[in-house]
Q: What sequence folds into this?
């Protein structure tokens, strides 16, 4: 098996050299954030901190955390470190309470991001002979475009099948001999199921690698995807507010996802106290961008729970590895690769008369993955007493509103008796 | 090769370097660009021991050399090319070059000295033509070449240049920069301070941007050349906003 590394000088860097590079870059990003980002200048001033206080990597923990709430509060221009003229891409991850979040990238940011995804692809043994079928929804998952650019960088071909049905995906896989599937694990499972129904054997496909992510997927799900599609799968990780995907990815060892520490500092903290945890302990992942030009984030709380292993990997990379993420510190759930925040649901309920504000979420699982979201929502007595048809109209109205807001179909139920 | 971590420096009470960290690998050309007064020259002086520094660390080949005396630092193989006005004007070109070798020159090493001179003459043929001429009579470009040649006579492993292009005609600048590249190919490591950002970014492997005593950007020469902030701040003559055109 050929185990190549895209940038060996960087990915296998001596860890003490890496620490030097990280300190230089940390001081630069802190200097820039303090000078150019109003939000960080205020934060530093409140904490009685100046950029010169960052003398070593350990000083990072003096810097206050940045949260998703900060990004919402500082919309639209408050988090940018460069004039908007230098920003070449704007992305709008889902915000809450009618307030969007904006993330911007300069040309250089996009170039770095493209290189990071290329590292992941090469780490998964993808090269110029591969055809990568990208079955992500480009509208709901803007990071999916990175597959195209990174594939171009390493010379691989891309088949943009996006939201085509599993049947069409399978036909294209056969007609064009796609070798790599990039999708959510849920969709990979769905494809496998359709294969079974149609009697397509993995032998009839040329697929050999799966780059899967955007939702938690346990090892037993991995095993069934690998068995049913006849592929080897690699977990990819990203954070919507930073880069997604491209922050970390599995190598052939598959014993954790390598974090690209030349561009990000990763810490693990106790989510309740904010204290740093020793290497190897599980806690909330906190990321500081080192090279991001447009939208630097210092100690951003990802809400993802993981542990970090800094031992060298048998693959030759020295970059730390994070454990696969299966839990979060907040109430966000991921349904078929789409992030759902309960706050967003509250916001939708608040706009429709006679329902809410109380609700509960029920998630139906399919083969271990979140498949269908059902909301049980309080409805006013008027609605409950109304004819069934009228209730259905209300349900339909709510479903449509949720679909628009969340991007997925949600089942709705009104409990007839008080919960 | 050279590693600086969180170094501060002052002029009296005024802080001119603020937690500066940078590194130069063996075999690299690293450029330091920034406006006047950003602290670039001070940083070179801190490295060569001409200006005191506080805090942090400064290592060369894994040895801590911060605040060593200049002569001990030169003996490590670190040479700062003097500004071209600091030549010995009443001496000839040859005498100036020989002075550059004073750290290692001895009566029984004449052949070695000659070898060395030949190397420098091959790099700057004009110096051979002018070797009997007094340094004070040279043109600006020739003086810069002599300054470089004199520094090279010290057989440095690590050379620092302060504004080698200052006051020179574009053609001469490109000759000096070509010489730097060819010396680098033969193994000399460079730290280059330049206001001529375009020329410096064009030949360096990596660069740092300094602003008011702090490092505010880093990247490869190519990356920085394409960086919008660098374009606006340092590549001014070749760069116009749309409304300025």
A:
């Amino acid at each position: 098996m050929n185990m190549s590394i895209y940038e060996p000088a960087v990915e296998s860097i001596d860890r003490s050299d890496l620490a030097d590079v990280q300190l230089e870059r940390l001081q630069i990003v802190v200097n820039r954030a303090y000078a150019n980002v109003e939000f960080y200048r205020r934060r530093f001033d409140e904490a009685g901190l100046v950029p010169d206080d960052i003398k070593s990597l350990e000083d990072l923990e003096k810097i206050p955390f940045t949260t998703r709430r900060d990004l919402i509060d500082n919309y639209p221009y408050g988090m940018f470190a460069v004039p908007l003229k230098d920003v070449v891409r704007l992305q709008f991850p889902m915000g809450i309470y009618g307030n969007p979040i904006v993330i911007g990238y300069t040309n250089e940011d996009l170039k770095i991001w493209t290189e990071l995804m290329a590292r992941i692809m090469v780490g998964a043994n993808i090269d110029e002979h591969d055809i990568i079928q990208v079955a992500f929804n480009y509208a709901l998952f803007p990071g999916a475009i990175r597959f195209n650019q990174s594939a171009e960088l390493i010379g691989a071909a891309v088949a943009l099948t996006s939201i085509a049905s599993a049947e069409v995906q399978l036909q294209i896989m056969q007609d064009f001999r796609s070798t790599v599937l990039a999708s959510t694990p849920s969709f990979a499972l769905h494809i496998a199921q359709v294969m079974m129904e149609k009697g397509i054997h993995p032998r009839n496909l040329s697929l050999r690698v799966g780059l899967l992510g955007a939702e938690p997927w346990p090892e037993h799900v991995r095993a069934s995807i690998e068995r049913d599609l006849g592929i080897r799968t690699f977990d990819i990780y990203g954070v919507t507010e930073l880069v997604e995907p491209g922050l970390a990815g599995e190598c052939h060892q598959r014993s954790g996802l390598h974090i690209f520490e030349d561009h990000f500092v990763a810490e693990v903290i106790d989510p309740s106290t904010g204290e740093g945890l020793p290497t190897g302990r599980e806690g909330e992942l906190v990321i500081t961008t080192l090279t991001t030009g447009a939208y630097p984030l210092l100690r951003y709380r990802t809400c993802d729970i993981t542990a970090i292993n800094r031992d060298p990997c048998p693959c030759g990379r020295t970059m730390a590895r994070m454990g696969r993420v299966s839990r979060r510190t907040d109430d966000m759930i991921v349904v078929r690769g789409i992030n759902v925040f309960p706050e967003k649901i509250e916001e939708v309920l608040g706009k429709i008369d006679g329902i809410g504000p109380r609700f509960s979420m029920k998630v139906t699982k399919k083969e271990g993955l979140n498949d269908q979201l059902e909301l049980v929502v309080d409805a006013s007595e008027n609605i409950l007493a109304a004819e069934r048809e009228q209730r259905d109209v209300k349900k339909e109205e709510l479903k449509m509103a949720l679909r628009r807001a969340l991007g997925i179909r949600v089942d709705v139920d009104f409990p007839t008796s008080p919960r | 090769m050279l590693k600086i971590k969180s170094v501060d420096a002052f002029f009296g009470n005024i802080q001119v370097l603020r937690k500066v960290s940078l590194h130069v690998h063996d075999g690299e050309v690293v450029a330091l660009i920034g406006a006047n007064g950003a602290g670039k020259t001070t940083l070179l002086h801190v490295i060569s021991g001409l200006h005191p520094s506080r805090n942090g660390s400064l290592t060369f080949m894994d040895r801590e050399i911060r605040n060593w005396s200049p002569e001990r630092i030169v003996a490590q193989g670190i040479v700062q090319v003097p500004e071209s006005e600091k030549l010995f004007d009443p001496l000839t070109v040859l005498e100036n070059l020989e002075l550059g070798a004073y750290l290692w020159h001895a009566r029984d090493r004449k052949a070695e000295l000659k070898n060395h001179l030949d190397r420098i003459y091959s790099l700057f043929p004009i110096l051979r033509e002018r070797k009997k001429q007094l340094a004070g009579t040279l043109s600006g470009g020739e003086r810069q070449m002599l300054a470089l040649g004199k520094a090279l006579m010290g057989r440095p492993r690590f050379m620092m240049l302060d504004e080698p292009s200052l006051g020179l005609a574009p053609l001469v600048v490109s000759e000096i920069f070509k010489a730097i590249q060819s010396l680098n190919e033969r193994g000399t490591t460079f730290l280059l301070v330049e206001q001529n950002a375009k020329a410096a970014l064009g030949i360096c492997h990596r660069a740092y941007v300094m602003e008011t005593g702090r490092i505010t950007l880093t990247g490869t020469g190519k990356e920085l050349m394409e960086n919008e902030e660098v374009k606006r701040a340092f590549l001014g003559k070749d760069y116009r906003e749309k409304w300025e055109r």
